[in-house]
Write a structure and sequence with these properties.
Elements lengths: L4 E6 L3 H5 L3 H15 L1 H4 L7 E8 L1 H12 L7 E5 L13 E9 H10 L4 H16 L7 H17 L7 H6 L3
Parallel strand pairs: 1-2, 2-4
Antiparallel strand pairs: 3-4
């Protein structure tokens, strides 16, 4: 194996209209995220990791969100981690980390509302989704801060502005 296996499925053709290089962008950002989050991988070598990314539409994401999270609405990104903390890791071969599904309409609307390019927002959501596969979460404030710090670091390495800067600027003091 020469690197992580990153499968990309484009289920909504609008992605390639908005971001012509969407497939290559997602693959590159996911690989960089995996390589940057080696602590979360523990003893698992990045080269053995396997993930899938699905570029979907809001309808598909809403259906998955309803089915698996009980929320009948679209969201920008869903992550379905395949690793179970209690399950032993296979000794050799690829290790499926899980799936990340991104919603086109929600992502584009958020990018416009936040004055970001679709490519930059997509990159942020890929980083965010892959980090969820690695066990990062943002339910508790300390977890959210840790996850956001890792996201900021990865995005800065990619030349993408801090996606949380506006939130902090607008937060009540």
């Amino acid at each position: 194996m020469t690197g992580p296996e990153i499968a990309i499925a484009i289920e909504c053709d609008l992605w390639t209209s908005a971001v012509p290089e969407a497939e290559d962008l997602c693959r590159r950002v996911a690989a960089i995220t995996l390589g940057s989050a080696v602590e979360a991988l523990g003893d698992l070598a990045v080269e053995r990791c396997e993930i899938s990314l699905v570029l979907a539409d809001d309808a598909m994401v809403q259906g998955l969100n309803r089915q698996y999270r009980g929320q009948d609405k679209p969201t920008n990104v869903l992550s379905f981690a395949a690793l179970d903390d209690d399950a032993p890791e296979p000794e050799d071969g690829p290790v499926l980390l899980g799936d990340v599904i991104l919603a086109y309409e929600t992502t584009v609307a958020e990018a416009a509302a936040e004055d970001k390019t679709v490519a930059n927002h997509l990159s942020h959501l890929v980083v965010h989704g892959v980090l969820h596969l690695l066990g990062y979460d943002h339910i508790e404030n300390d977890e959210a801060e840790e996850m956001e710090d890792v996201e900021r670091s990865i995005l800065a390495a990619l030349g993408i502005p801090d996606p949380y800067a506006a939130e902090e600027r607008d937060a009540p003091k």
